[in-house]
Amino acid sequence: MREKIVADGLNDGAFDVTNVGRHLNAKEFNEALQLPGTVVVDLRNHYESEVGHFKGAILPQADTFRQELPMVLDLLQDKKDQKILLYCTGGVRCEKASAFFKHHGFNDVNQLNGGIIHYTRQVKAEGLQTEFIGKNFVFDQRLGERITNDIISKCHQCGSASDRHVNCKNEECHLLFIQCENCAEKMNGCCTPACMEIVALPIEQRRVHRKGKGKELHRNVYKSRLRPNLSEILNRQLTHQHE
Ligand SMILES: [Zn+2]
Ligand SMILES: [Zn+2]
């Protein structure tokens, strides 16, 4: 058990991981959201909350769950006596996080039972109002389930409203990013002109490329695969072409 806690980045000594928060169903969660002083925290990564989240939620800009908890602890330092509502995709992350916050002196820790997935099912079945807007990001073929028609994020390439997550069409890159329909057409489903070039090669040459300098090429294109600043890269390359 202890080893597992360390693996999650929760290495500040053993604490009772079974002392979790109160589990709320969809109706209870909605009601708690309306109470004055309630603080709602999205425990998912930034690319997940970017396309959909609960109204008014704190959205920590974490790349991983390991980063997330210390970050949230910092953000909520002066809110230990307020009602805290936690949520994640399926409820698993909240089990650990709620015990972590209770251990750190938070007195009213609550969590969405079964996560957003279960919440949206209950909302539909019981005809409740959804307080979650946009898309629920999931790692399947669709990369997300639309919950409401609100589009709360922007295309990472041109900045127009879009919540269309795609993987770069260059298989060796496969970068996950948000790309609008226009940019998808213009960029042939790729993240950068470098990937467009590779995708345009005949299959045999692409294979050679994969063995060779493909990976290296990518390290030079963007600093982080999680925050690749695609619009900046495109602008830089366009300016370069005009010089
Ligand atoms: Zn675009
Ligand atoms: Zn790419």
Notes on the protein architecture:
- The structure is a single chain.
- The protein has 243 residues and is α/β, with parallel strands linked by helices.
- It has a 4-stranded parallel β-sheet with strand order 1-5-4-2. Strands 3-6-7 form a 3-stranded antiparallel β-sheet, with helices on one face.
- The N and C termini lie far apart (59 Å).
- The chain has helices at residues 2-7, 26-34, 46-49, 65-75, 92-103, 115-126, 181-186, 193-200, 203-211, 214-221, 230-242; strands at 22-24, 39-42, 52-54, 83-87, 108-112, 132-136, 145-146, 165-167, 176-178.
- It is elongated.
- It has 11 helices and 9 strands.
- The model is unreliable at 1-7 (pLDDT under 50).
- It folds into 2 domains: 2-143, Rhodanese-like domain (Oxidized Rhodanese, domain 1, 3-Layer(aba) Sandwich); 165-242, no CATH class.
